[in-house]
Amino acid sequence: MADMEIRKSTYDDVYRMLEIFKEAREFMKENGNPNQWGEAYPPKSLLLQDIEEGNSYVCIKDGIIVGTFYYKEGEDPTYKKIYDGQWLNDKPYGVVHRIATARGTRGVGSFCLDWCFNQSGNLKIDTHRDNIPMQRLLAKLGFNRCGIIYIENGEERIAYQKTLE
């Protein structure tokens, strides 16, 4: 997948990112996961905030944005408490949220997650119980299912971690 590259998102990317998230929500609904992102998540305001804070990225192939995600190194408050399991370690980590790929693309999610893992060597991510395609991808990429976390609105998510150790 050397024909893809990752770069920080810019304000000019927002409309394409919103298109990709719309496609991702449609894909989720078609694959038995209508509730994780509902009708309008993530809102444009959140994407703008992610860009402003320097934590928003896009994946580009042949000059076109084909994926987008949030990546940050450091503590994630929703990961402080984990239930029905435990994290693999308590070392510094990177976290991925809001990863989405354009309709009809292949290998973009793997490319983005590999890129994130290569930044930190210790990566945490979570997904909805109904998001079977993401759970399969995480398993394929060597992530370990660690337990259950609860996001800010109280909803449950399955927590995963991958580490170099």
Walk me through the structure.
The protein is α+β, with helices and mostly antiparallel strands. The protein has one domain: Gcn5-related N-acetyltransferase (GNAT) (Aminopeptidase), CATH 3.40.630. The protein is built from four helices and seven strands. The chain has helices at residues 14-30, 44-52, 108-120, 132-140, and strands at residues 4-8, 56-61, 64-73, 94-101, 122-127, 144-150, 156-163. The chain has a seven-stranded mixed beta sheet with strand order 1-2-3-4-5-7-6. A hairpin with a 5-residue loop joins strand 6 and strand 7. The longest helix is centred in the N-terminal third of the chain and has 17 residues, at 14-30. It is globular, with a radius of gyration of 15 Å. The model has no long low-confidence stretch (mean pLDDT 95).
Strand order of the largest sheet: 1-2-3-4-5-7-6
Shape: globular
Strand content: 25-35%
Oligomeric state: single chain
CATH superfamily: Gcn5-related N-acetyltransferase (GNAT)
Number of helices: 4
The CATH topology label is Aminopeptidase
Between the first and last Cα atoms, what is the distance in angstroms?
Answer: 25 Å
Q: What value does the average pLDDT take?
A: 95
Number of domains: 1
The chain-level structural class is alpha+beta
The CATH class turns out to be Alpha Beta
**Radius of gyration, whole Å:** 15 Å
Task: Please mark out the parts with pLDDT under 50 across 5 or more consecutive residues, or reply none.
Answer: none
CATH architecture: 3-Layer(aba) Sandwich
Q: How many β-strand runs?
A: 7
Q: Which bin fits the share of residues in helices?
A: 25-40%
